[in-house]
Amino acid sequence: MQIREYNEAIENKFLSEFASFSSKSRGRDRDEKQCDIRTVYQRDRDRIIYSKAFRRLKHKTQVFISPEGDHYRTRLTHTLEVSQIARTIARSLRLNEDLTEAIALGHDLGHTPFGHAGERVLDRVCSFGFKHNEQSVRVVEVLEKDGKGLNLTWEVRDGIHHHTGSGMPSTLEGQVVRFADKIAYINHDIEDAIRGGIITEEDLPGKCKEILGKTSSLRINNMIVNIIENSNDGKNIRMSPEFQESTNCLRNFMFENVYVGSVAKKEESKAELMIEELFLVLMQKPDLLPEDSQEAIKKYGLERTVLDYVAGMSDRYAVKKFQEIYIPVSW
């Protein structure tokens, strides 16, 4: 028996009846020979980790633009924290940990430079709008590997697409990542905001701390435990009403005190202006696009190509490109 078949047999024997089994995946858009060693979801996870879009996450903003210090989160460290939380929940519920990890690692591949500031700008200036979850799917289906895409399984792409927004993932593993994303960003954004002197632990709503925990690590642990205790029936992944209400309360507090209008956001207007100008000037002067994008215009049209190019930039590449176009150089 091949190693992959042995691993699939282990899944079938030990995973929950509600798990997504590798041997029963709905498959890929393009058929390909199975790996002798890895299951389809293990293979998807590896493809995401080795992708260029994944590597660019290390230079993309999570919340705080250009912070002075090495300990603030980036989009990459956020992704790793989401993966850790999601795997812990999936393992405890006996769901498919490999599928969960692949979705978690791929969920933000389409995020813009400068975090949600960049996303807001592109959604405004592009005629057909922009959502980072939809762009993440486009990255893995179309943009990676010189336009060939990663050819991931349907379940991974579904989980990436529905990790945010109104639609729910079709698998419990995807639902786990949806929760893990919120648990991670609420708590690590609180840590970063405290580190930056924007808020203090004492500023957090007392009722939320009483229910969820008084420290970040306690809150993460308690949220995870609560999800596990309330999701054993396999119907869906959920928190208790009390925990869900407190989580929403904490998220609202962060929007009111950190995400909108705080000192941490003072550079956002500059970032937004830069992304808008880049998009508009490239629409007017497509000859400024690199050679591979010139080819993409013939296939996808100008606006779609410019959007893909700008959305794929890291923070520092966006700054470099802006300087290239607008700042005179010495001669």
Q: What is the topology?
A:
Blueprint: H1 3-14, H2 40-49, H3 52-56, H4 75-92, H5 97-106, H6 115-125, H7 132-147, H8 154-161, H9 172-195, H10 206-212, H11 216-230, H12 241-259, H13 268-284, H14 291-300, H15 302-311, H16 315-326
Describe this structure as you would to a colleague.
The protein is built from 16 helices and no strands. It has two domains: about 50-265, Hypothetical protein af1432 (Orthogonal Bundle), CATH 1.10.3210; about 270-325, no CATH class. The mean pLDDT is about 95. The chain starts with a helix and ends in a 5-residue tail after the last helix. The radius of gyration is 21 Å and the shape is flat. It is mainly alpha-helical and about 325 residues long. The relative contact order is 0.13.
Structure summary, number of beta strands: 0
Element string (H = helix, E = strand)? HHHHHHHHHHHHHHHH
> Given the C-alpha coordinates, what overall shape results?
flat
CATH class of the largest domain: Mainly Alpha
| CATH architectural designation of the largest domain | Orthogonal Bundle
Rg, rounded, reads 21 Å
CATH topology of the largest domain: Hypothetical protein af1432
Largest sheet at a glance? Answer: none
How does the helix and strand content classify structurally? mainly alpha
Q: Any idea how many domains?
A: 2
